[in-house]
Hints:
The structure holds 2 protein chains of 2 kinds.
Chain A: H1 10-30, H2 42-51, E1 58-63, H3 72-79, H4 81-95, E2 99-104, H5 112-126, E3 131-136, H6 146-153, E4 177-181, H7 182-193, E5 201-208, E6 214-219, H8 224-230, E7 237-241, E8 248-250, H9 258-263, E9 272-277, H10 282-296, H11 302-319, H12 325-341, H13 345-350, H14 352-360, H15 362-367
Parallel strand pairs in A: 1-2, 1-4, 2-3, 5-9
Antiparallel strand pairs in A: 5-6, 7-8, 7-9
Helix pairs in contact in A: 1-2, 1-4, 1-7, 3-4, 4-5, 4-7, 10-11, 11-12, 12-14
Chain B: E1 2-5, E2 8-11, H1 18-24, E3 48-51, E4 54-57, E5 68-70, H2 74-94, H3 103-111, E6 127-128, E7 132-134, H4 144-152, E8 159-161, E9 168-170, H5 187-191, E10 197-199, H6 203-211, E11 216-221, H7 229-232, H8 242-251, E12 256-259, H9 260-281, E13 287-288, H10 293-302, H11 316-332, E14 339-345, H12 349-353, E15 365-368, H13 369-378, H14 400-403, H15 410-424, E16 442-449, E17 452-460, H16 462-470, E18 477-481, H17 499-515, H18 525-535, H19 541-547
Parallel strand pairs in B: 1-5, 11-12, 11-14, 13-18, 14-15, 17-18
Antiparallel strand pairs in B: 1-2, 3-4, 3-5, 6-7, 7-10, 8-9, 16-17
Helix pairs in contact in B: 2-3, 9-11, 9-15
Amino acid sequence: MQILRKTDQKAYAKAKKLGPKGVVKILKDKGLTGRGGASFPTGLKWEMVLKEKEKEKYIICNADEGEPGTFKDKFILVNNPELVIEGILIAAYTIKATRAYIYLRGEYEYLENKIRNVIKKVKAKTKSKANIELIVGQGAYICGDETAIIASIEGKRGQPRKKPPFPTVHGLYGKPTIINNLETFANVPLAILFDDWDSKLTLFSLSGDVTKPGVYELPVGTNLRKLVELGKPKHKVKAVYFGCFGGCMPYSNINLTNENVCGKDCMLGAHTIIVVDEKHSIVDMATNVAKFYEFESCGKCTPCREGTMRILNILENISLLEARKRDLETLQELAEVVKETSLCGLGQTATQHLLNALKFFRKEFEEKCR
Amino acid sequence: MQIKVNGRKIKCDPKKTLLHILRERGIEIPTLCHQEGLEPQGRCRLCVVEVDGKLITTCDNYPQEGMKILTHTDKVIKSRRINAELLMPDHMAKCMIENKHHDLCKIIADLGITEVRFDPKKKYEVDLGASVIRDDNLCVNCGRCVDVCAEVQATWAIDFARRGHKEHVTPYFEHNLNDVACTKCGQCIAACPVGAISEREHLQEVYKVLKDETKHVIVQTAPSIRASLGEEFGMKPGTIVKGKMVAALRRCGFDKVFDTNLGADMTIMEEASEFLRRVKNNECLPMVTTCCPAWIKFMEHFYHDLIPHMSTCKSPHEMLGILTKTFYAKKAGINPKDITVVSVMPCTAKKFESVRPEMKSAVDYVLTTREAARLIRHFHVDFNNLKDENFDPALGISTGAGAIFGATGGVMEAALRTAYEFATGRTLRDINFEELRGMKGIKEGKIKIKGKEIRFAAANGLKNTRELMKRKDKYHFIEIMACPGGCIGGGGQPLPFSWEKIDKRIEAIYREDSHLPIRKSHDNPIVKQIYSEFLGKPLSEKAEKLLHTKYFKRSQF
């Protein structure tokens, strides 16, 4: 696997030779894009922060991998953490930041000591003076949102705020800040050091109704069937979920690129695939996902706070065979309004799965309604 | 910059929010979480409009060149209706009939929602504070109270706790308001668009004493009530309703209506004398005024080192209360035990002040302006058509100095008018201290008294107070009012809160001052009479005993 290649911290030395502008250029040329879900070009993001005239700048590594069914960051942290630290140090060198933060998912607390040791080791080897602080989150999904991470690190309530201003301009403590996903940072040294680094190769987290779940490294654009077959499903596959926020769609023969998936009103996001086979009801899946969002909504804005709760109530009623057909209309309306009017990414994507389920699997819902 | 709103071209200022621009053009956009002067949070999501097929909030977005805004498309109305409906179930279950003027209830009516499809869920206990009551069941999590407490008052008594639909406003660790560092200023009440926070009502008790034949019930009204009470009866902000107010209160059954402005004059006599004594002996300067009970509580929590700097004078209504039960009781030949004193104040902190144990308060019940209006409506008094009447002369003649107590900087101005003449024995030629007037957060100035330069400052809003206290040693005399604009913007004043209203009320108060025949406290004939017949002179032993108090240290938490 490409992500398991060792660099022995030679990429940092090369980055120093290239200079900040050289690093930005090489990242742009090689086409590294963010792996957190938005696929924003990494070189461009770093360039934006580099151009800011503030003296103090920060780096945040988003390791708050809270998306259900996603475990690629953990895979990297367990198997090749040096890469991540080196990537962060390169970023620190590039924008002359003296302080970087790793925001680690609360559930990955057991990796804390390991990461601290790696930080020490890599820092000693590269002789970088940047401080890397490890912050263990307290288990809130919303703290995967970049503005919520900033609030959390600042010691405030982990709640998102409106963008713009973007963190590249007004980030941690109001200073320009690079926030990248952990996998992005891990790819930085690889992209800089190896000429044969393939920007298309990415990590897919495959789980659900498959007998061989796990992390698969495949190029973007791989056919969905090929990926799911690798997981060896037992029964006939009915649908796939792209994590919780990516929405769901019927199992079909599509190539997994952002454009293709968006065409189905889904989002590829962090390359999470949850497989659902015919033995499972989509209503149950929808209820489960709705429960997740009801629990993880931060409570800041009305549609997400109240809407997710009411959606869950209706879905639970449907599962209990107590709902009426007109409740489906309410469900549809609620899901649309939550999507359209929520403040942050969580709310805006919280009901995509439901809208798609109502579109593609409406029959399953109607069968359970009076 | 030019944008298009519903197809019409509009020129606009790029620094104003879309909400501001649209409202200026007469397009009403519903919103719950927006309050002028506070950072927009974008919580309620009711203020959405459609731009290029997408919904955006107007409270926290700014215009961009060529933007095409549609304010009332089906999509906009649908999302507003659903979001309002989502907020409604719990609120509706407890919203009282009288409070139907809540912003939320109005929005619901405007959107034409007749059916709410969801059941109420919240089961919070009501937090019964000494002066502020919070009912989380009515709350719609707009966050205005939290923002006011933090951004305007810098007190941080309340914030959100928990998440998702369990998120609710609470003091830290879900304590009660009584147990935390809350100043009781009531600005959260003024900010609340749904009446989830309100004053601790004392109306029932007042109705009871009014019925009691054996009680001699006396009411006194604060300087700022006459400038704001009219709003409750549909009059324009800034209408002075002194005569109607007195007449209405008599109709409600009060035996005597006294004027707290006289108490203010008494406060000035004591405070100015105390200040001059401190300057003479050079002890503990700057001296800080103590008319504002919210400020006192704030100081007791956060500024322990200021205790010796605080004037020991009680607040005006407490002074008048004790004078009613001593001076007036003796003159009228009534047993003080049979006298009940009710104060109508623009303030919720005064409710707490009147139950302070060390105060041994002579005031039995404190009503806010809103409660007073409810009281008048309770007795079905036709307020708008009443003929003007005068305060009862026994303790009802006051000066312009007392009148301006209601506005920020007023206490200082009144005190300086008297202090100057006390110290020099000469008449102060220009008694208008323009530098102390207006809505600025911190105002300062200086005056020469007997060759010594006296520097003074006045702050309104507790955040500004924190600023001022950083450089307090520069001054000799400091006035603090906890609420924006002073008592005129108090937590007990008619709702809803707006800066414009406060401006109008302040204007009215200064107009009142300039029209009054006597404008200095020491020229007040009743004040003179009280001192000559009863107290002797300012700061006499008797005055110290009756009109002064002390302060305590409280925890910061």
